[in-house]
What does this fold into?
Amino acid sequence: MMESGNPVFYVPLFTNEYYEQFFIGLVNLTNCNESLDKLQCLREVSYDEFNAIVNGTTKINGVPFTTAWNPTIDGDFIQRYTSLQLTEGQFVHVPILDGANSDEGTAFSPIGINDTEDFLNSILTSAPEFGVPTSLANEFLTAYPNDPAVEVVESMGNSEDGPPFGEQFRRSASYWGDYFMIANRRLACQTWASAGLSTFCYRFNAIPAGIPFEIGVTHFQEVSFVFYNIMGVGYIPAAEPPFTGKGENYIRLSQFMDSNWISFVYDLNPNSWRYIPGNWIGQESFWPSYDFNNPQIIVFDANVSSYTESDTFRSEGIQLFIDNNLGIYHR
It folds into this structure.
């Protein structure tokens, strides 16, 4: 099962050598460079000192210092760029359940996107280590037009965001959601299905309590539904419990999703629980296995019964990401 990511990572993949420079920089900045056990020395650095270093402006070889140790091409667990591995069939051939939320990009888009120039600048920096060519950025401008009718946060209708988000925030969020999550979710579904494997893909489309309408069905919001966490355990005080004041339809959606997930874990088919006599079925669609030539996904919704749709939305922009995962995005 894959949520919050796919085999093709959000950002560029690097080798161990790339991250070694930051490790050396860190031990130098903490005076652990002379220690025989540098890792233990780092563990003993005070919080205040360590926090000041990782939140500072130090650069290593001209690159901003980072402690984000992302997945690394090590020739073993990750043998090479994962988009290449998928193309070559070098992945674990087992059934998958994979999905993303409708408005993922509201969690990842920069704010203050007021016009096309702001949006273009955000695209040009979407591969920060290498840069996006202007020609490709212009293709993205066409693929992601300034048109609320095709942008994320559908619940806002034709309205545009005001400060601090910016009048073209929804346009930008469409791009960034596909960049980080949705394009690579589609690629994974296409790849597994093309290999003849059972593949179940979804779009989550319910806004929990406490989420501003400008943010919509953003990243992470499906988690409480998958775990049937109707009491909102773990949310207070950081966030409002997601089912607060939402009514029976939200509880039934969680019950439906949780049953699908458990069924998939048990026998690799999210629908099998519905064949058991006496189980609640309701009006929700059965979850179709993904077909490369006729891609169908299930949409988990609380305002209407969950339904299926063609996985063809924003096809031009999403295909641009898929086609450039290796050459431009280095992943």
Remarks:
- Residues 1 and 286 are 18 Å apart (CA to CA).
